[in-house]
Amino acid sequence: MGISSCLTGQRVRYDGLDKFNALVAERIAPYCRLLPFCPEAVAGMGIPRPPINLIQTADGIRALGRDKPHRDVTGRLLTVADIFANSYPALCGYILQSRSPSCGLNTTPVLDPTQQQVLDSQGSGLFAQRIRARFPDLPLLNDTDLNEATIERFLHDIRLRAMAPGLRFKQ
Ligand code: SF4
């Protein structure tokens, strides 16, 4: 099961810190083989690193530097997502860090080009978007969705997927 690395306690965030999640450690990790993955670190953006935001541009939504908006890491993040998807076709689920411009699922703010105004508070990070597109049926949760009921359902869903004779995988 894929998981944003920072949720497992790895210090990979842009500020060099983690987002350790006790529910993941206590209620999910004992039942799954976790595959921690940080798309920004794997994309070579460094730890710590300058923060990025999702920006609505004339070319669509792009990941640009918060302080250096000419720095566009969109292509890098999408490439990393494709490499990940190609490497793990038997993925059974993914837990994502909410609000992240890479990992957030329907929780990430999309800003206007001046980065002053939120145009959409329910955007998805570029990595999360690409994973959802490549694995349309994959059980996905944000860390902020985790509670007893959603964890039970999620574990049930990923068990079913793990037992499926042929995993569906969109090229
Ligand atoms: S949210 Fe995603 S990109 Fe950001 S630190 Fe966590 S794993 Fe890395």
Quick synopsis:
The chain has 5 helices and 8 strands. By secondary structure, it is of the alpha/beta class.
Q: What would you say this structure looks like, in words?
A:
It is a single chain. This protein is of the alpha/beta class and about 170 residues long. The protein has one domain (about 1-165). Helices cover about 30% and strands about 20% of the residues. It is built from five helices and eight strands. It is globular and about 45 Å long. Bound molecules: iron/sulfur cluster. The site of iron/sulfur cluster has 13 residues, from helix 2.
Number of helices in the DSSP assignment: 5
Beta-strand percentage?
15-25%
Number of domains: 1
What's the main sheet like? 4 strands, parallel
Q: Give the oligomeric state of the chains in this entry, treating copies of one chain as homo and distinct chains as hetero.
A: single chain
Bound molecules: iron/sulfur cluster
- Catalogue the unreliable spans: none
Q: How many extended strands? A: 8
Question: Which terms would index this structure?
Answer:
about 170 residues; binds iron/sulfur cluster; four-stranded mixed β-sheet; four-stranded parallel β-sheet; alpha/beta
Write the layout of secondary structure elements.
Layout: E1 2-4, H1 22-28, E2 35-37, H2 39-42, E3 52-57, E4 60-65, H3 74-87, E5 94-96, E6 108-111, E7 118-123, H4 126-134, E8 140-142, H5 148-163
Parallel strand pairs: 1-2, 1-5, 3-6, 5-8
Antiparallel strand pairs: 3-4, 6-7
The chain binds iron/sulfur cluster.
Iron/sulfur cluster binds at residues 4-6, 12-13, 38-41, 97, 100, 102-103.
